[in-house]
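Final report, closing paragraph on structural work. Over the funding period we assembled a curated collection of sequence-structure pairs, and we close with a single example.
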Amino acid sequence: MSTLVVVGAQWGDEGKGKVVDALAKSAQVVARYAGGNNAGHTLVVGDRKIVTHLVPSGCAYRGTLCVLGAGMVIDLDVFHDEVADLQKGGMLQNGELRVSLDAHLIFPFHRLLDGAREDKAKGGAREIGTTRRGIGPAYEAKAARRGIRVRDIFNPERLRARLEHNLASLGPELARLGVQAIDIEAEMSRAASWATWLQPLCCDTGELVYSATRGGQSVLIEGAQGALLDLDHGTYPYVTSSNTIAGGACTGLGIGPTAIDAVWGITKAYTTRVGAGPFPTRLTCETGDLIRKHGAEFGATTGRPRDCGWLDLPALRHAARRNGLTGLCVTKLDVLAHLPRVEVCTGYVDDCMPGVHDFSECRPVYRALEGWGDPSLPKQIGAARKLTELPAPARAYLDMISEFTGVEITLVSVGPKRSQTIPIRDAF
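Its predicted structure, as stored:
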């Protein structure tokens, strides 16, 4: 294969950063197709921890082209600082970064509006639990055809017209929420400073990725968030504002589906969720706290503690179907070894089915697994570098996941370090 899409198969935070980093060593291009700096990918390179929010996870490899696609929304203040930090660390030194001219931009008024809306909805049914980064308002503007794209900052006349359109549309709501009005002159000045350093990075990234696929290069396409947060196919309205499933790679990058050779999904060995919304296997007991502690389950973007629960196999199978998964990567297998016992959701009461029923209606049916909580297992699992080196309970757990979902397991992560990765099938 030459083109591989990697997506989250749960509610995000599945470890995509580490998996993409592991696969990117064999790729010439790593492209991201959706979302903004509401995503946070954590890479552990040697003793160094790197967190990216906008730059694709291939940034740690010299010469690997990193692409921000048209389907993204980009906060250029965040992007500038992130690139500067990565360059200080020796990365992105050789022109490895490209930005789509058609990606939409997040302005300060998007962030202010996002936060004010969340504050007003706090504690009520309308609270979504967004990251307050302006992602939703930017995508809202895009759909309303008043969005501002990267290419617009190079055309001051058009940019001013777009800002005036936003002022007219959003002014009343901003005033009602007590948020300062859009300062067009300040935004024009900000955009001019952005344009100076951004222009050399910009191009038609759809053509770039298309040419790479046609030229037989290994192209790794990176998703953000997870399949169950997809705007159309997730737990609406508690979703993100973009299409996170694998099909979004085509629209977000501007390539046809025939360019994609394989789709791998990423799942933790358990389930987590951050923000509001249904979560059938959520644990509100000491076990959930133990998973959070040993899994370091705190958001890379917000620092918020994640809700934790047992692995939801029907939801995972649902995600496998929606994404057309050809491979499954299982992360944080080592975390479960800290628990005295493990359960897994194998179905729901009253034959509730995801896609037909709302996830909020699904009450899990669990299967208990015996023999998992051996005190020696955490160290043994973390030291494994081959599938055969994993203890029998861990291998049985992986076999169960693959059998239930009907998807072959292609990679297993047994710890945060690069070396703690067990490749089962080559990506390219």
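The chain has 13 helices and 19 strands. Residues 267-423 form a domain with the Adenylosuccinate Synthetase; Chain A, domain 3 fold (CATH 3.90.170.10). We thank the funder for supporting this effort.
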